[in-house]
Give the backbone structure.
Amino acid sequence: MKTKILSIVLTGLLLISTSAYARDRGPEGADRFHKGPEKGARMMEEIMDELDLTDVQKTQLEELKKPSVEEFKKRREEVKAINQELKKELDKAETDKAKIDSLVDKLVAFEREKIEKRVEHILKVKEILTPEQFELLKQKMEIKQEVWKELRKMRKEKQGKGRFSRHNRGDEPAE
């Protein structure tokens, strides 16, 4: 049970922290299910609207969303560069185990930092919300998590039905 609650809370943190890096939504009517931090931000806005927040709570939560977008982009680019460097090292005929270990250690450190920031964010949100609001938030996040799992499942199934998917190598047209 504690693992399930922790999972829900971590998922909530992920969604809330994703909204911290959101950019402008674009024109009204833009596809709200496209990839990127904007998706999480809009979903979180919808959930937050249902929590009946006070003006003070709204202000406090807005302050939590203000981490630098540039910092997020920088971290993402650093991780991408390390992953590329790791791939290059693994592709070499003679690999340097010490260098690979160093790159893996950097990736693990980034992941640890990301998790620590998520947990810290959840704790701050928990301080801002009433126990009832936080419980409602957990319930809403659990529902969203189930919806996203289903969407990912459907997307994977759809990918397997393409014209040249691994299930259909082009010998005959897809259904």
User: Anything to note?
Assistant: Residues 97-128 form the longest helix (32 residues). Confidence is low (pLDDT under 50) at residues 13-34.
